[in-house]
Write a structure and sequence with these properties.
The complex is a heterodimer of chains A (284) and B (335). Chain A has 284 residues and is mainly α. Helices cover 71% and strands 0% of the residues of chain A. In chain A, helix 2 crosses helix 4, helix 4 runs antiparallel to helix 5 and helix 4 crosses helix 10. Chain B starts with a helix and ends in a 7-residue tail after the last helix. Classes of the chains: A mainly alpha (284), B mainly alpha (335).
Chain lengths: 284, 335
């Protein structure tokens, strides 16, 4: 209990991390209450040619897009898309990657060697390129983009968990549990996993920001979300045709991506400093 | 001597990794799609054409035979024909590579130069206003979507202020083709008009591609210097009255570089991935825009060829960085 208290107090001292957490909470609330917050919820999908490409006004603070839809409302509903993509992709990468890392680190047999080689091969690609190739092979849709992001992201987790497990498995408490005759599943799940949890949490937090960025890039290239989904990356790609006139069309969705990714990075950096000081690079 | 042995060992490990890359891409192209023949044929093909392609590409044969054919073709340098340009994919990659290389090299150069300099400087000026400003800049650099930054630069500096061209590599005739790198070729032939045109064209895309790696390197370099600066041997030298610049150059720099250099390996990956979107935004005629044009045509063969190519380049780049690390810190060879 006291450890948590110390960690919590240390975290509160980090103003950037607290600000990041604040933005993430605001993002979640926005997604939940999108229909109440959006000035014009009906106009997410409704085409309204009479008011297309209008510059920001009091009625449309962020202007309207090429179909006359309110950009602020679409950004607000876009938070749902963003959260769904990031949570499912990072969540599945964790579900695949963590057990593989535990097995590869704890056992010393052909299976652990094989799992390690497979994750190494995934890691010999830039993740984005592999995700893009997969998304193309699966066919462009938001579900396939999520699938492609999960399939290409798990090796990052298995690598970290592998390294941490190697480190932990020779510690005395694990040997003691082994000597008591605990079965291997029990050791992995209740003794090793809790001890490798900190780097996983830190990596997953920063990974959320990274995944949001990658998903937006897939959307921008046309292999992620498809129209009329109010996805931010897709909106920027739609806006390109109307530049330089409709500057607001590209600028506000991009700012939304920027703020959200920055929030996850700041929160993740703060978590790393308190949970996993060995990796500290923010150096305050 | 140890470094040579280390290099040889890493070169031997390279073979299974490259093979693994090919197998993974084969899996993505031949096993994952419901009907790979339909994908190859493109969206405008009819049933008869799809059946022909199925036979021609051997999609009706057992998987291991297909994998073998795929490997043999790859070694022969045959990657098929691009649906988009109707030219061999291998030819496209070869002719577009210099454009990507030029952009990536300029960005890599500036991100390493600026990242290391700013990293050292902010570490020395720790917690002063310049450090705080650059902390903000690096946080922004890691959060900004490269494609969006490129578009905003185009919008404000290109369209509105008209300072830079917004698309392409050069205006007018390109310089004589020696290396395919316009900046270098125009310098070699003293073609100043081409040089300045190429320079003006590369500034915005290179700035976009530089920003995020610059931020990463600055953070790692700053942390590395802080680590070294607070260590006992530096404290000792400082108390002996060694002047600060000499202390930094001689004792801190080398020990602070390892973490940064190991990040440069990852940057190759970032450059390859980043060039895809940035070339798209700035109509830069390199591999990245080829990949995107192929995506738009649903020409997945070409996309996969670029993916294989990126995997190879990334692996070799990382190998190179590991060998560099072994030179900076010989202890690395024992890992």
């Amino acid at each position: 209990m006291t450890t948590y208290k110390i960690i919590f107090r240390e975290f509160l001292n980090d103003r950037l991390a607290v600000a990041g957490l604040g933005i993430i909470v605001a993002l979640l609330l926005t997604a939940v209450f999108a229909s109440y917050l959006a000035p014009d919820p009906s106009a997410i999908f409704d085409i309204n040619p009479a008011q297309k490409l209008m510059a920001p006004t009091r009625e449309h603070p962020f202007g309207t897009d090429h179909m006359g839809r309110d950009i602020l409302s679409r950004i607000i509903f876009g938070t749902r898309v963003t959260i769904v993509i990031a949570v499912i992709a990072v969540g599945s990468a964790l579900i695949i990657g963590v057990p593989i890392g535990l097995i590869a680190g704890y056992y010393e047999n052909w299976l652990s060697g094989f799992l390690l080689r497979v994750s190494d091969i995934f890691l010999s690609f830039p993740q984005f390129i592999l995700a893009m190739a997969l998304a193309v092979a699966l066919g462009p849709s938001i579900e396939n983009a999520i699938l492609a992001l999960s399939i290409t992201y798990w090796p990052w987790f298995s690598r970290i968990v592998y390294a941490e497990t190697l480190f932990v498995k020779h510690s005395i408490f694990v040997e003691a549990t082994e000597a008591l005759g605990a079965n291997k599943f029990r050791i992995l799940a209740f003794h090793i996993l809790p001890n490798v949890l900190s780097p996983i949490i830190v990596r997953a937090t920063i990974g959320m920001g990274y995944t949001i960025l990658t998903a937006a890039t897939l959307g921008f290239l046309g292999v992620g979300a498809q129209p009329p989904t109010p996805e931010w990356g897709l909106a920027i790609s739609e806006a390109r045709e109307y530049l330089p006139g409709a500057w607001w069309f590209a600028t506000f969705p991009g700012t939304a991506i920027f703020v959200v990714v920055m929030a996850f990075n700041m929160f993740g950096d703060g978590l790393r400093d308190v949970l996993d000081p060995r990796l500290r690079i923010s150096g305050k | 001597m140890r470094i040579i042995a280390f290099t040889c060992k890493r070169l031997i490990y390279l073979v299974p990794t490259l093979l693994g890359i090919v197998v993974l891409v084969f899996f993505i192209s031949h096993v994952i799609p419901a009907d790979p023949a339909a994908l190859v044929a493109g969206p405008f093909a009819d049933q008869k054409q799809i059946a022909e392609i199925r036979h021609q590409y051997g999609f009706d044969r057992p998987l291991y035979e297909q994998l073998w054919m795929y490997l043999v073709n790859l070694i022969k340098g045959d990657l098929g024909e691009s649906l988009y340009t109707r030219r061999p994919v291998a030819w496209e990659i070869k002719s577009r590579f210099p454009a990507t290389l030029e952009l990536a090299m300029v960005s890599l150069f500036f991100s390493v130069l600026l990242g290391i300099t700013v990293g050292i400087y902010t570490a020395v000026k720790r917690n002063q206003w310049v450090d705080h400003i650059f902390r903000g800049v690096t946080i922004a650099g890691l959060a900004i979507a490269a494609f969006w930054m490129g578009i905003e630069l185009q919008l404000w500096l290109g369209y509105k202020l008209d300072l830079f061209p917004i698309a392409g590599r050069i205006t007018g005739t390109p310089p004589a083709d020696i290396t395919g790198l316009f900046l270098l070729d125009s310098l070699l032939t003293s073609n100043w008009k081409a040089f300045f045109s190429a320079l003006r064209h590369i500034i915005l895309p290179a700035a976009t591609l530089t920003f995020s790696p610059f931020a990463t390197l600055t953070r790692f370099q700053r942390a590395g210097v802080l680590n070294a600066i607070t260590s006992d041997y530096v404290r000792y030298e400082r108390s002996m009255g060694l002047p600060a610049p000499l202390l930094i150059y001689k004792y801190v720099l080398r020990n602070s570089l390892t973490a940064t250099v190991s990040q440069i390996g990852l940057l190759f990956g970032y450059m390859l991935a980043g060039s895809v979107v940035i070339e798209r935004v700035f109509s830069w005629p390199g591999l990245g825009s080829f990949a995107v044009e192929s995506i738009l045509m649903m020409d997945y063969k070409a996309v996969l060829a670029v993916a294989i190519w990126a995997g190879f380049a990334y692996t070799l780049g990382n190998l190179f960085v590991d060998i560099m690390l072994a030179f900076i810190d010989p202890r690395e060879t024992t890992r």
